[in-house]
Amino acid sequence: MVEYAPILIFLGVAALFPAATLVIAWAVRPSRYNKTKSEAYECGVPPSGDARARYPIRFYVIAVLFVVFDVETIFLFPWAVKYRALGLFGFAEMVVFLGILVIGFAYAWRKGALEWA
Amino acid sequence: MDPVLERVIVEAAVKIALVFFVVLTTVAYMTWVERRVSAWIQDRRGPNRVGPFGLLQPLADGIKFLFKEEITPPHVYRPVYLLAPILILVPALLTISVVPFGPALRLFGRDVPLRVADVDNGVLIILAFASMGVYGIALAGWSSNNKYSLMGGLRSSAQLISYELAMGLAIVGILMSAGSLRLSDVVARQAEHGWNVLWQLPGFVVFLTAAFAETNRLPFDLPEAETELVAGYHTEYSGMRFSMFYMAEYANMVTASCLAATLYLGGYHVPGLQRLGLPQNAAAIVQLLAFGIKVAFFLFVYVWVRWTIPRFRYDQLMNLGWKVLLPVALVHIVWVAFIVLMGWA
Q1: B184-202 burial string, b = 16+ CB within 10 Å, else e?
Q2: Does the beta carbon of B124 lie under 8 angstroms from any beta carbon of chain A?
Q3: Does a structural domain hold residue A117?
Q4: Rounded mean pLDDT of chain B?
Q5: Chain B residues within 8 A of A20 when measuring between CB atoms
Q6: Which residues of A touch B179 (CB under 8 A)?
Q7: How confident is the model over B103-153, as pLDDT tens digits?
Q8: Which domain holds residue A80?
Q9: Test mutation, B175, B226, B242, B243, chain A, max A CBs within 10 A
Q10: Packing angle between helix B280-306 and helix B239-264, nearest 10 degrees?
Q11: Is A56 part of a structural domain of the chain?
């Protein structure tokens, strides 16, 4: 596990950098309150209503599809690493696995889950 | 303290300081390079007043950002709003920690490999950190409580996750050829058997396209789309916090270029270098420079593409990701598997 230690240190430094920059900026920057300045910027038109409104269901559909295919990708990784040892058996297995997923993908496509127009 | 651990920590600290300095300098100067190259492509002059050839421009920009007022509008959700820029920048910087920059350098009687960490699942770590960036963008858009920001954040999240799939599937081909998740093994394999780009061209194209989308760069910079969303998820940010979104974007570009060079262009490998019989340190420095040139090439391509291909519409973007890149990547996996099975590569 000792080889992961540098990543942990790197994480610390990477987190410290924006924190330190923000503190320095906070110390030197001006701060002049102005009512107009702190309004929501929506192209100069006075904002109407809350921004947390409803949005298209398509984003959820894409998110669900993403989960399916991302898990698939993760399943492919160990197979790919050991592929040379698995030989023809590994190839056939993965063609079957991908085939099942392609059926699912084709179904989502035909159902119009991928349409944005 | 355990002497082995102590040595690891000291060595890591020095390397991290160096890598951090180099990455941040590259990020700063990438803004200059981008403007100069854009100007060159458009037959303009670009920034040339601050210092010779405008070389001090990034410094001036940095100072200006530091002294700019930061407005925290009262309508935002403060904890998330303040955290989001950091959540974007940290993973963007962190990804570089597993990239191998070169072979080992002989220093003080022992080999010092030119990388921060050489872990056995480097590719997984990269994908993990790369997908962390989505949180920052989605949260920045949501917490701003601005309609444009929310739309930009949503679009961006959908874009990032869609292209992450294509990227992950393209990388599977690399893993099949290298038989390892360790990035230095990927480079070693390419040094022995030729660069991956030579026989995995479709995977390379898918990877590069996905890399452009993952970094929110033209032709896929819809989350920002100045004309319709007034900068999208960072509309409500100003001053230093705003600059963090920019730094993250450029840091992501640097990382994506490092990855493209490592996975497809042989990393730090230079063909025919071994035959010259250089001493270890000289060879290491040549390879380090070669890696830098490969990365610089990809960074140049980023700017080049920006002024060559017009921006996609959102439905075109999603169609490209799901209906073109994903099927191509799937077919590519089967194809690479077939080639490896036949023992052709």
Answers
A1: bbbbbbbbeeebbbebbeb
A2: yes
A3: no
A4: 86
A5: none
A6: 81-84
A7: 887 777 777 788 888 888 888 888 888 888 888 888 888 888 888 888 888
A8: 2-110
A9: B175
A10: 120
A11: yes
